[in-house]
Write a structure and sequence with these properties.
Layout (H helix, E strand, L loop, with lengths): L1 E10 L2 E11 L4 E5 L6 H8 L7 E6 L2 E2 L5 H6 L2 E3 L12 H6 L10 H6 L1 H21 L15 H13 L5 E5 L7 H18 L2 E5 L3 H7 L3 E5 L2 E6 L1 H6 L1 H8 L3 H7 L1
Parallel strand pairs: 3-8, 3-9, 6-7, 7-8
Antiparallel strand pairs: 1-2, 1-4, 4-5, 9-10
GO molecular function: ATP binding; ATP hydrolysis activity
Keywords: ATP-binding, Nucleotide-binding, Transport
Pfam family, one: BCA_ABC_TP_C
């Protein structure tokens, strides 16, 4: 589904992504791991159009999407979430979901005068879909809650729900477990697995929690210093000498993470 070929992203003399090449197969849940500063989030940002690459190529199926802006990729079904959730704090959780689809009738001034029935019908349909998504994610009790008042883990679930409001094909999740308690992380994991198996979503997941990666992801890709070091099952990655060296080089804490 996604092919990255010899991708580079430089910031002056710093090579954040340095010749990375990888393939994301359709229907997979691919894990992306690596020490801090390995280039994982920068790679996500380049693929998702947040940053333009210095050189290299990104394709989605047969389509060259290199350098396309996020809104164009959104309409092609490529979405990403962020390590820090980007909710609309003063709006309810339901309203956060309802505003995701683009091209709504209420966005056109003419319709506010002469297309009120169309707007009302569309809003009823969006409300029903939002409630379905909240139920799927087991957070329907938060429908009327202001999004800025829910917990960090619930915000991550809400971000995942926003991808369900459109025809998502591939979703990039950046540290979905950051700041999330174990119970909510398991709920997020359950939702990802269900979306993958029941609705055919393809996921790419940046995460430092190896238990979470091991539960969800196959294959796993390891990056270090802007390059792809290895790809395989988590057990294969853990046994790879280059991967071990990359983690050991950043200290005992990372060594323990791979244990």
């Amino acid at each position: 589904m996604i092919r990255v070929e010899n991708l580079h992203k430089h910031f002056g003399g710093f090579h954040a992504v340095d010749g990375a090449s990888l393939t994301i197969e359709p229907g997979s849940i691919t894990g992306l791991i690596g020490p801090n500063g390995a280039g994982k989030t920068t790679l996500f940002n380049v693929i998702a159009g947040v940053l333009k690459p210095t050189s290299g190529r990104v394709t989605m199926g047969d389509l060259d999407i290199t350098g396309l802006p996020p809104h164009a990729l959104f309409h092609k079904g490529l979405l990403r979430t962020f390590q820090i959730a980007h909710e609309f704090a003063s709006m309810s959780c339901r309203e956060n979901l309802m505003m995701v689809p683009g091209g709504q009738a209420g966005e056109v001034l003419w319709n506010t005068w002469f297309g009120r029935k169309r707007i009302a019908d569309e809003e009823r349909a969006l409300r029903a879909k939002a409630d379905e998504v909240l139920e799927f994610l087991t957070i329907s009790h938060l429908a009327e809650q202001k999004a800025g008042q829910i917990s960090g883990g619930q915000k991550k679930l809400l971000e995942l729900g926003r991808t369900m409001m459109v025809d998502a094909k591939i979703v990039f999740l950046d540290e979905v477990g950051a700041g999330v308690n174990r119970t909510l992380l398991n709920t997020i994991g359950d939702a990802i697995i269900r979306l993958n198996k029941e609705r055919g979503y393809t996921f790419v997941v940046i995460e430092h929690d190896m238990d979470f990666i091991g539960r969800l992801c196959d294959p796993v890709i390891c990056m270090a210093e802007g390059k792809v070091l290895a790809q395989g099952t988590l057990d294969e990655i853990k046994a790879n000498e280059q991967v071990i060296e990359a983690y050991l080089g950043t200290g005992l804490k990372n060594k323990e993470m791979l244990a």
